[in-house]
Sequence to fold (1030 residues):
Amino acid sequence: MTTDEATKPEGEVQAAALAERGEDITPAQDRGVLKIIKRPGNDDESPMIGDKVYVHYKGKLANGKKFDSSRDRNEPFVFSLGKGQVIKAWDIGVATMKKGEVCYLLCKPEYAYGAAGSAPKIPSNATLFFEVELLDFKGEDLFEDGGIIRRIKRKGEGYSNPNEGATVEIHLEGFCGGTRFDCKDVKFVVGEGEDHDIPIGIDKALEKMQRGEHCVLYLGPRYGFGEAGKPKYGIQANAELVYEVTLKNFEKAKESWEMDTKEKLEQAAIVKEKGTMYFKEGKYLQAVIQYGKIVSWLEMEYGLSEKESKASDSFLLAAFLNLAMCYLKLREYTKAVECCDKKVLEVNPQNKAARSQISVCQKKTKEHNERDRRIYANMFTKFAERDAKEAASKTGVEKEAEKATCAQGLETAGAGGKEAEGHV
Amino acid sequence: MPEEQSQTTMAVDELQAIIQRCQILEESDFRGEDFNLFQVAGQKCLEDGYAAQLLEVIQNEKNKVIIKNMGWNLISPLVRCILAYKQEDDKQEHCLKILDQLVQLCNPKELFLGLLEQIEQTSGEQVCPTVMLLLQPLQTVLLKLQNKKAYSVGLSLAMIMNQLTPLPVPYTKQQIQEDKLGLCRCCNAVVDFAKPFVNEVVKNMEKSSEYNNMELKEELLKFCMKSLKYPLLTAQLEQLEGIEEHPFRHFATEIIDILQDIRELMPLVFLHHKGRRSYWENQEFEDIERKNSADSLACLSYLMFVQHFGINCFPMVFSPSYLLQCNMTHIEVLLNRTEESMLSKGLDLFESCLLRMEDNSLSHQYLEFRDFINVPQDLVKVMTLCPIEHLRKKSLNMLQLFIDKFDAEGKYTLFRCLLKTSNHAGVQGYIIQKIKDQIHLSLTKAHDNVWFTGHHLISLLDLVLFLPEGAETDLLQNSDRIMASLNLLRYLVIKDCESDNQTGVWTILAKIEKNFLKPLHVGLNMSKAHYEAEIKNKKENRREANKSNTVCSLTVSEEKMPAMTTEMQLQVLHSALFTFDLIESVLARVEELIEVKVKAVMAENI
Fold:
């Protein structure tokens, strides 16, 4: 209500007032974005970069014509702050606001839609006037599953992120229940943090960080040390962790299209070994990363010589099989089935019979799993029973599938190794 | 004649007989046999043209209970008759009245199934007339249904859309105006059919935010998604001159209005980064749904950003680069199709996103998104493989526009990628020309540009200044690429003095000579000798060859090309020789320039 009264009759007056005594909030101090606080916030906290922010706003052109309002849609507008999702003026402006604050922003075209405008509503070179109310904000949920929440303390440079396989140099401090258990400078390959007692969540989060970024990461158990905990640091099973990480530097791994076939095949042999090592240690998420690399490098490769394509196929077959096995362990059955399907249809059609068997097993496990979940949904007393039952029923089917996969995996692993050696 | 008369009255008599027998029975005492007799007799009346008499029977207050229970059995013959009679035939009029009566009187549950069955059984040309005929009755029945209403509405809509889907979508203006199969009219009728249910959802949403009638809403959402995929994705949606109310544009507006009314429009547009609320208990269904929805979402984006349908409720604060990023997935989906309607939608959507951006404003980091690397490669595919000329041209324009939007590093990466991935000499030649333009900008602009000078450029030149297969490279096929490379090299040696060596070309001169110029010389000599020999051969054999012994035939898109005469063959061979001469002359010029410059420097040094 408060926001409505003020803007109705005197929109232009406000624009004039802004131009006259608005505060220049641009880093360049070029008067590109001017701000007046209409109602101060009730909280001293401002959102951090990357935070999910909730606002209500109203936008007008210089002639006073309203072009947009979130109130008309009856829904707050949500975006990630400081990520270039919105016009520059907003990334700058909203970052200065406190929770509950209402402010006016006057934005030059260079900080809005520029000479190009935005058809059909914003003409070329338009100065925009906004009234914005910051309703709420919260840390960025990196994978939309609540497992990793990030709050950025200092923004990194550019947009470039380390990819899987990139070499990173970071400083990290790990906390659990308020106690610091780790503090070090370390250099490692993304996806292989486990080698330095760094949980998978850090690897995953690094792929979304930029050079120089300093952030706090809140890790759920799945992205932390999981059920196993970390005795070395005295961390119990399923503990929540907080890490403070600075990405000092990194060197990207080559993208698939930057590598030639020979390089891909050489690398495939290396990462397969690594994947198998992780698998044996029960580090399935890490193993998935390694096997996944083989798929991303070789799946779409064409124009191979006969020898190369044989080697490539055996790598792919092993990768898909092992991936399926990892997903089984991780209880991601759809993905497991997908791997089998791909493997059967694309790489080795002759393998069909054996593969479809596995698919069937997996589907069954999955269905069973889901039926159980439905039956016992919301029945806390039966939770324990359900878990026991699920485990019992699964291990039967799973083990069978696994046996088959293992045999196959080992077999092709041997063949793959030979092929690769032959190639080198 | 009298015999015939007696036969037909027999049909009415039979019906009267069964009716009279049932009139005295209780509802629960009707037997299966009665149903059969009623159906057979009723059907016979209809087939023999006694609709008026049948109507009388049905309208008779005393028969209400019988009709309530058995009436739905008449739907099938009734529909057949209505569609068979000409319009404004009295008999059709009677049949329509019968249908009306049945809708009023019959048990909704059974009638619903009866109507649905009719829609299910129709095919081909009959689909649209049948659907149009039954929509109104179906709507009335559904509104009467007590149980499983949402499910039934969903089932009806799904059934109707499934029946329509095999029909060809009118594409040209003429086809749309003609609307031969009635699809245009039918689609809009289906929307009207859905409206009361939309209103119901809206009303429920207003009542409370907790109780949202999720089921019905979900069914309507599915219908909208389906409509976006068919017919809208296949339809021509540009405004057409001379058609006031473009039926598919109208349909599209209505679909978007429904989405907006049930508050699903924004969640759909931002589906991929909002994390979809799970409608499905079963994860598997959700995965399938997601795959199926890619086409529908692409169409939705096209409607919003190109045709501006529903743009009024779209937040006007997003940055242009973010909009491009969001739309890239959709553009990729569309460009991977081969149909004109979809390719052109993809190109239009891409254009609309790019036009919102200023040149050089897009950071190279965007190339880390897979779609940003894939889409230009898809454009190249359209440019080189699509049989439709205006799409090829537009693709090239879009590639140009896309390149323009990137910063220098982005352009650089894009060039590298396209040089490596496009197996087409024409495209490679084009890219090389673009590289030359960028070098020119870097050398002439005041602020220097690290990406198109020095060591970055050298590594790019490595990809340009060589022959893919050394001296054995097919020079004719690669002529576009080779000419562009030579032009670039000529530009470099003229523009960049050896003393400055801003581009670094002088550093790698030896390598260029070894990988490019030398093999090119050898290749030219070999090719020329080969083609000259061939010409000589042809000329000598000219008289004998007149016997026309075609060695092989050539077909282009299943059309057999006429056999080449010796004259034509000679012409082709000569034009090849001409190309070689052209290459040779530019090559000579380049070598001359290099020699002069190298000598000049040597003289200076002495």
Residues 272-281 of chain B have pLDDT under 50 and may be disordered.
